[in-house]
Design brief:
Purple Acid Phosphatase, chain A, domain 2, 5-stranded mixed β-sheet, 295 residues, alpha/beta, 7-stranded mixed β-sheet, globular, single chain
């Protein structure tokens, strides 16, 4: 395994994560904010700690869509995340903010909740976790983070479910457009930084709807078109890890870019994570294995 120097930087630079292991973990969609649910979330994190990954990434949804979008709910999950020993990187889901206008979720202002979520679950220049790592972050959208480890470039993109917030409300349309432009710039920077890398891994919450969108126009149209072009130019393996639709699968759903592998994490009713082994000198670079709380 190559050991890369760690550098704290902002902008388009890539930052190396500490080389603690040759694996990382992805999980998300933990949608039970009850005390018993949080106990099970903590038990899952204990399982992840036992695997001893170099880092983990949580791809959004710390609560159910019908659960309240309160600071207390966020704080409870932040406390659960505090038990995660390796570095932990977070990207937001729709249940945290885009859907908070719904009466069942408390009738909150989504923009205000988005700011609260970013403040709770991200930090300037560093990850969560008892052990932290330096992250490059996008100016003005610090939840978009990037780092480099084991000759692979990793990046988060703030792209939640509920159609990436492209909904039939003027405020949502405006918010989507601004954030989508930032995501596009971050994706360009990520592939530019990965020219000599063995692979690229992208983390987002929303299912991009790939080749068969069920909601048109989708809030992921720009992402899919940009990804197809960037992945083709890159040529190496690209993994897109997401949550949202609660179906664990590893497949090749994107006909426009056959070198893209989709990893969708577990969701209700299952609690689980996915362990990804990385061998930059191997034929496939990435190997995947499920890690279920209740096998």
């Amino acid at each position: 395994m190559r050991s890369l120097p760690g550098v704290l930087a902002l902008g388009s630079l890539v930052v190396a994560a500490p080389a603690q292991a040759e694996r990382f973990v992805v999980f998300g969609d933990l949608q039970d904010a009850s005390p018993s649910g949080r106990q099970r979330d903590a038990a899952l994190i204990e399982r992840i700690n036992a695997v001893a990954p170099a880092f983990s990434v949580f791809v959004g949804d710390v609560k159910g869509g019908g659960e309240p979008c309160t600071d207390a709910v966020y704080a409870d999950m932040r406390e659960v995340f505090a038990s995660h020993v390796p570095p932990l990187v977070y990207t937001p889901g729709d249940n945290e903010w885009t859907d908070c206008w719904r009466e069942a979720a408390g009738g909150f202002d989504p923009a205000e909740r988005k700011a609260a979520v970013v403040a709770t679950f991200t930090r300037d220049g560093r990850s969560l976790g008892r052990e932290t790592m330096a992250l490059a972050q996008q100016e003005g959208q610090r939840e978009n983070a990037r780092w480099r480890w084991n000759d692979v470039v990793f990046a988060t993109l703030h792209m939640p479910g509920s159609n990436n917030n492209l909904q039939q409300r003027e405020d949502a349309i405006a918010e989507h457009g601004e954030r989508d432009a930032r995501n596009a710039a971050w994706l360009d920077d990520t592939f530019a930084a990965a020219t000599e890398a063995a692979g690229v891994v992208l983390f987002l919450h929303g299912n991009p709807q790939w080749d068969a969108p069920w909601w048109e126009p989708t809030g992921f149209d720009r992402f899919r078109a940009q990804l197809a072009e960037a992945a083709a130019a890159f040529g190496g393996p690209v993994v897109v890890a997401h949550g949202d639709t609660h179906t664990f699968r590893i497949d090749k759903p994107f006909a426009a870019a056959p070198n893209v592998t989709r990893l969708e994490v577990f969701g209700p009713p299952q609690r689980g994570a996915v362990v990804v082994d990385v061998d930059p000198d191997g034929t496939s670079v990435f190997r995947f294995a499920p890690l279920l709380l209740d096998p």
